[in-house]
Amino acid sequence: MRVSRLVKQAKRGNKEALLQLILADQDAYYRLAYSYMGNEHDAMDAMEDMIVTLYEKLDQLQKNEAFYSWSKTILVNRCKTLLRKKERFLPLGDDQETAFNTLTDDNPYRYAESEMDMQVLLSHLNPRQREAIELRYVHDLPYQTIADMTGAPIGTIKSRISQGILKLKVMIGGDRHENDRGEAAGASTDPEFRTGPART
């Protein structure tokens, strides 16, 4: 596999090989960093930090073929460190809150037609639900990689995603029939379902 070969070369000190690995997936790295940082400048800072860490710790990677999941875990950790320094981990922006407050029930489906509308909806999940859903469906990462990135068990990740999706469906009216049968109402008692700080 080309990835394993390049990682082996990079471990032997070939900086060009590491650069090739990073450039091959640079768009995915940027989108991932941007989803956490919220702006281009901070996203680029996080990516630079990741690259420095990769240079310093590449020898610690045990499975060469796992380079991309490992490097993206490093990137997420760098993003979270930078956000903690800014005291704003996965914030709810004032503009997003204002936009959400203007929604009505006349036609709830139309509010999920654009990426911005989806971000408004996601802003009303708790941070861990939002993170898990974005990593799974925006960045197309497997459950195991998300578990490694967040330090949570796979079962917890799946629970966060399912409860978060259920809440989104309630907000846009996607499961009114389930509500009629009382199936969705009971789910709201789960701690992962509530808006606000997650408990897991």
Structure description:
By secondary structure, the protein is mainly α. It is 64% helix and 0% strand. It is built from 11 helices and no strands. It has helices spanning 2-11, 15-24, 26-37, 40-57, 67-86, 94-101, 115-122, 127-138, 143-150, 154-171, 176-180. Helix 3 runs parallel beside helix 5, helix 4 crosses helix 5 (67-86) and helix 8 (127-138) packs across helix 10. The longest helix has 20 residues, at 67-86. The chain is globular. Residues 89-113 and 175-200 have low confidence and may be disordered.
Topology readout:
Layout: H1 2-11, H2 15-24, H3 26-37, H4 40-57, H5 67-86, H6 94-101, H7 115-122, H8 127-138, H9 143-150, H10 154-171, H11 176-180
